[in-house]
Amino acid sequence: MSIDKLLRFAVEHGASDIHVQAGAPPMLRIGGQARFLESAPLTGQQTAEYASAILPKRLTGRLEEAMVRGIDFSHLIEGLSRFRVSVYSQSGTAAMVIRVIKMAIPSLDSLNLPAVVKDIAVSQRGLTLVTGTTGSGKSTTLAAIIDLINSTVRSKILTIEDPIEYYHPNKKSLISQLELGADTPSFDQALRQALRQDPDVILVGELRDVDTLRIALRAADTGHQVFSTIHSATAPQTIERIVAMFPTGEHALLLAQLAHSVEAIISQRLLPTKDGKRRPAVEILRGSAVTEKFILENRLSELTDYIATGESGMQSFDQHLLKLYNENVISGTEALRNASNPGAVAAGMRGITGLAR
Length: 357
What we know:
The chain has about 350 residues and is α/β, with parallel strands linked by helices. It folds into 2 domains: about 5-100, Beta-Lactamase (2-Layer Sandwich); about 115-315, Rossmann fold (3-Layer(aba) Sandwich). The chain has helices spanning about 5-10, 45-55, 65-70, 115-120, 140-150, 185-195, 210-220, 235-245, 250-260, 290-295, 305, 315-325, 330-340, 340-350, and strands at about 15-20, 25-30, 35, 70-75, 80-90, 95-100, 125-130, 155-160, 175-180, 200-205, 225-230, 260-270, 280-285. The chain has a 7-stranded mixed β-sheet, with helices on both faces. It has a 6-stranded antiparallel β-sheet with strand order 3-2-1-6-5-4. A hairpin with a 3-residue loop joins strand 4 and strand 5 (about 80-90). It is globular, with a radius of gyration of 21 Å.
């Protein structure tokens, strides 16, 4: 089976990811579950041929260098789908993880996200972070948010991605999309350039280092609407991770910028549902005078209780898990497995109030 046929097979069977490495058959993730294809294990030569067949032109003939360093890029099969590809070295041979990206940009409604996410999207201010583990749908949520802005607001939108996943046509907004490696060498360099390109909205694929964080905060502080992602589990943990990135000498300034600039933190996890699909469980923290005060005073543990008040559309993971359970979307086992406080969720499942508001 060629790489082209493998990708087509994966799309036709609803796979979200394809894993390719020597010594095993290709593995597909379907509905969150990993499944091997019923075929012979791949050889190192086959995995190298698969990777070489879809490498960007700028890397042609440089597979060994690329896989040792590790590289991400996008791949398109016209009329089928886009793919986000990560090539790396595994036991001295080429290996890949390929994420299937649907051609159509989904709407926030189709993603079953809380209605307040629309309000956050069109707020036209501040820093909004979408957080979660790899595969939790962060990029898809951001694509839906950008599409909503593009469809409803006249603005200049600039995205910086590694790689570009969803291509956005110009609607009411003008969109410029930069890809690391092809259009810019790094997130922080692209951000520096972005501030001279008259953007209203800036999407940074990931806040990977303090330089990128510093410029993103400055952009939000000077009136731009900024979106990005961080690998963290909850909204309070996201603040903790950002604070830990701050250098000592700039701690006070950056902390003040963060406290003032945060518009929202949307943390999500994809859960298997009773009908065999997947649904996001979402925690939302909104920026407010209270949020600013807790961040500035390093009272981050109190953010969890504040989120649970439900003010301005906020909600905790546990509140959303209980809601999904009560709506018969997820099982009780799944709700408890993902709960921050399993005891409180279990009590809510028995009808004991005090968790949901």
